[in-house]
Description:
- The chain is α+β, with helices and mostly antiparallel strands.
- It has two domains: 1-11 and 131-240, no CATH class; 17-93, no CATH class.
- The chain is 29% helix and 18% strand.
- The protein has five helices and nine strands.
- It has helices spanning 27-42, 61-92, 176-182, 185-194, 214-219; strands spanning 106-113, 122-129, 132-134, 140-143, 151-156, 165-167, 198-200, 225-231, 235-237.
- A hairpin with an 8-residue loop joins β1 and β2 (122-129).
- α1 (27-42) packs antiparallel against α2.
- The protein is globular.
Amino acid sequence: MPQDDAETGLKAGSYLALLSHSGSRAVGFKIANHYSKLAMELHPKLDSAVRHLAWLPLDWQPGQEYWLSMELAGRYAAANHEVIHQRVAKAVGLKAILSVENHHNFAWIEMIPAPAGFQGNERKVFVHRKGATPAGTGVLGIIPGSMGDPGYLVRGKGNTNALNSASHGAGRAMGRKQAIHSITKTERDRYLKEHGVTLLGGGLDEAPQAYKPIEQVIAAQSELIDILGKFAPLMVRMSDEPGDD
């Protein structure tokens, strides 16, 4: 940590961090797929070019079902993380002093300042943060790099021009298939060795070279977040994936 932080209670120094990445284990995908198909069925006259953009108003029962189901999937995903962290902490005999969430690829209902021409100071909107995470005023967040690069503990500045959002990570520089066919296991392992990272499992689609430089991504968000700390990966455990034979 670069300095003491009264709000979190953290003191300047070194800490051991556990970062987990787990969604709703395909539950969210199945929910979205079901209601997307239903929306298309309920808007049969939409042009085929925009049929995939069919919607479900919240004053329709299917729209209410979709919203509640999505919220449930989000809570399920958060519970997955909580269980993982509790079990790891118990196994190593340590107690967590701070827990920070990076909820992304999700939708929120929020009050956002109304653009010019709209009545009132604020209006209620749906904010879908695809590839982004909440960064409202004072909101803590984690922005990770890759399996071989640093991550950052940050606090949001509440920039409404960015819809109170920040990047949820470094972001991919190449797609998964491209990474598998462009990066060799030797190249990936050499990179990890140079950065002192031990990898257990993992495929070439998640190789560090497949991601953008995290330092550049963080620097581009100076108006969105304040940096509270920086952490470097030591050990990474991932499931075995294609391309790592």
